[in-house]
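Summary for the lay section of the report: proteins are chains of building blocks that fold into shapes. Here we show the chain for MMEL1 protein and then a coded description of the shape we predicted for it.
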Amino acid sequence: AARIIQNMDPTADPCKDFYQYACGGWLSHHVIPETSSRYSIFDILRDELEIILKGVLETSDQGDREAFQKAKILYKSCMNESLIEQRDSSPLLEALTMVGDWPVASADWNKTKEPSWSMEEKLSIMNSRFNKRVLIDMFVWNDDRDSSRHIIYIDQPSLGMPSRDYYFNGGNYQRVREAYLQFMITIAKMIREDKNVSKDDSFVQEEMVKVMELETEIAN
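The coded shape description reads as follows.
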């Protein structure tokens, strides 16, 4: 209640400027940070919660239950920037190997990988190991017709970009679309370099355009 009152401006006449009356205190006490597009009470609560969580995650894990220990191990692994820099792209390359490699980052994928490659198997691995749904979304949830049981749901997945508007509209959407394609090209080149695959910019460009066309078809 005190926080609500603090965010009001009781000196303003609510009949003349209700917005100033209700929010004037907030406007005088807070400035939108340069790193944010908005700033509300929920953003403050989130920031306060992150500080509390940081303190909890940095305490000793002795005597903690297993779930808390795992959370602290994950936090420490993310904060170990020197090890992250040392490992460089090796974790990503290992992940690509698990899902059957990436044709655009391989010299002869069609000959060495495709014969034994199974889409059903790789989709299940990406779902179970990496929580990544591609082409289809599949998950277990409460049955809408009988809440006492769970069933498998199959749905459309999320797109590479936030919504289908990004694939078809002009203006800023088109600029994002162009940057998205360039981002894919850049990543593919970096991975080819890390795998010591010969440079072939035209091949990478052609393959990533195909990826963009496929995503556009899915969005449609």
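Put simply, here is one thing we learned. Residues 71 and 171 are 42 Å apart (CA to CA).
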